[in-house]
Amino acid sequence: MILPKIYNQYFVAIIATIGGALFGFDISSMSATIGTPQYLDYFNSPSPSTQGGINASMPGGSLVGSLVAGIVCDMIGRKYTIQFSCFLWIVGSTISCASQNVAMLIVGRFINGLCVGVTSSQIPVYLSEISRHERRGRIVVIQQLAIEWGILILFFIGYGCSYIPGTASFRITWGLQMVPGFVLIFLMPMLPESPRYLASKDRWDECHEILAQVHAKGNKDDTVVLAEMMDIRTIVELERDASSTYLALFSKKNWRRSMVGIMSQVWQQLAGGNVMLYFVVYVFQMAGLTGQINLIASSVQYVIMVIFTTPVMFYVDKVGRRPLLIIGAIGMGTFVFAVGGILATYGKYADEVGGNANIHITLEGQFGPSRGVLVCSYLFVLGK
């Protein structure tokens, strides 16, 4: 069967960023289940270090995936790399769904992480290379929206499955992760290859054709198309004359921009993003919420994140990346500090909270501080 080709930039972005939804699915596959009795009973209430290892296995796989993604993409192209990563996602989700013990779950999540490392690093590259300069910011924001929709969708699936007795509760949740992987494998052939990749392989006619289809409905003489061709030629020639190793990123000419790119991501993680996404159920349990009320309150955080990320798509190209990054960073730092401060000041130590031996601080019975943690957690994701 020959699938039709799609050249509309927004449709291309919507399909490609299903890969971002995989990242969101993986986050919720843990956050929606780690507080349920079905998960705790089957995996013998994992200790803090064990649960940390389970959660960290996915970022560990992502680290490996992101390190090899660029090399593979330059060899076989963006499309085929993304498709192959989805195959890894399906394998990892299958292993997680069938997990008989913690070790098997960690292996499955590590393989899932390999996919996330590829998609989270290469889909923004693919989108930036396929989109027009003046739309590039909003197109790439769709990737973040896809991550957040993935978090939200699978969290509610996990919430619904929490009513199912036995291991089917989390196995169904983890098994449904495979669906977007299959969808992306099937739809990727409909998308054009990156013009930048084609140019790097001296496939200039194909590069010109795709640019014309994406930017000018097939008109190869359009001024925007010709300008993009000229820019790509210049960049490709520069890349061939320069070293393309990882060490080249830290040369005298490049190290400043490399450090900006690296440290912006490092500090984004250190600002508490993973704590407030993977372990939000634990945070709200410390605030005194239990059972289904905890899951519902946690889902509100993800709803807020989706709602307030959407307007950014329309302003990022007007306001600029840097001001939004600074404002978001200040907001994240302020409110994660506030959450920690409230818990440290008003929290009481306990051997375990709500039967969970991984939690040792509780605000139970303290209405004001408890609601303060909830509000600050919700405000945190506005900056996120």
TrEMBL record:
Q: What is this protein called?
A: Snf3p
Q: Which residues form the Major facilitator superfamily (MFS) profile domain?
A: 12-384
Q: Gene name, please? A: SNF3
A molecular function (GO) held by this record is: carbohydrate:proton symporter activity
**What Gene3D superfamilies does the annotation carry?**
MFS general substrate transporter like domains
Quote a single Gene Ontology cellular component term.
Answer: membrane
Superkingdom of origin: Eukaryota
Transmembrane segments annotated in the record for this chain: 12-34, 54-72, 139-160, 172-191, 266-287, 293-316, 323-346
- What family classification does the UniProt entry report for this protein? Belongs to the major facilitator superfamily. Sugar transporter (TC 2.A.1.1) family.
Specify the protein's topology with respect to the membrane. Multi-pass membrane protein
**Entry-linked Pfam families:** Sugar_tr
State its location(s): Membrane
Q: Which InterPro entries match?
A: MFS_dom, MFS_sugar_transport-like, MFS_Sugar_Transporters, MFS_trans_sf, Sugar/inositol_transpt, Sugar_transporter_CS
Q: Which UniProt keywords apply?
A: Membrane, Transmembrane, Transmembrane helix, Transport
